[in-house]
Amino acid sequence: ENKGSLVWLKQPKTNPTKSESWIRTELVDGPDIIITTQILNETTIIVYAAQFFTSALKYYYLRIGTDSPYIINKDGITIDDSIGAVEDVQIVDLFKNGKQQLLVNNHLADGSKNGVFVYEFPEDFPYGTSQTFVKHQIATGFNTTGGVGVGAPGFCTLFDLNVKEDVQKPYKIGVAGDGNFITWELTLTNQQTFSYSKDVIQSIGGTAGIMAFADVDGDGYTEVFIPFYEDGIIYVYTANPDTSKYH
């Protein structure tokens, strides 16, 4: 049976890099691929878990500040268990207005079922009575060639095309196709409905890994770095319009 566990590793007070081992505490079964955390207060952390093997997006309350940290709610609170194998969860501010969301992708071979999702936090979260997150599927159709272990999409990365002029604009979302073999750009078209267009950055003919974005040459325009798994190389493209959108 494939399953994961959330563990706590306590750093030794002295020589942490030279100690034989850190103190390990098994907290809870369930979290496996990716987690992200949110500090609630001095004694509590919220752990959001993309649970791949149990096909659930959950969160847990982790009590810290004691010699033995522990999970308050062992079963976790389910945000969504309807999208299949969940690969990643990030806390983001898509519109740069101070209002956060969860950005999530699942990882499936079926292009009609895979996709990228945004979950709006309840207005009174986490102290209020409402625990319902509003879900928006912002992209789908990441078709794959099939085969054992092949899935899509891959991880998402927020970016601006122009690091100076786009500061006030909502982020674009770069989506690694993974087994889809294509890298994608999602652009907001309607903020009220969380609608996005989906455009190809580059088709690379193989597994497209997580992308990195940065203005590395100082011209104000973002460069995108695309890892090609099978060939062991990284493609670099620029968004500078004096050349081409991506090349």
Explain what this protein looks like in three dimensions.
The chain is mainly beta and 247 residues long. 0% of the residues lie in helices and 45% in strands. It is built from no helices and 18 strands. The protein has strands at 5-10, 23-29, 34-41, 44-51, 56-63, 70-71, 77-80, 86-92, 101-106, 115-120, 134-140, 156-159, 172-176, 182-190, 195-203, 212-214, 223-228, 233-238. Strands 3, 4, 5, 6 and 7 form a 5-stranded antiparallel beta sheet that branches. β9 and β10 form a beta hairpin. The termini are far apart. The model has no long low-confidence stretch (mean pLDDT 93).
The largest β sheet comes out as:
5 strands, antiparallel
Strand content: 35-45%
How many distinct helices?
A: 0
The residue-averaged pLDDT reads: 93
- How many beta-strand elements? 18
Q: How are the secondary structure elements laid out?
A:
Layout: E1 5-10, E2 23-29, E3 34-41, E4 44-51, E5 56-63, E6 70-71, E7 77-80, E8 86-92, E9 101-106, E10 115-120, E11 134-140, E12 156-159, E13 172-176, E14 182-190, E15 195-203, E16 212-214, E17 223-228, E18 233-238
Antiparallel strand pairs: 1-2, 3-4, 4-5, 5-6, 5-7, 8-9, 9-10, 10-11, 12-13, 13-14, 14-15, 16-17, 17-18
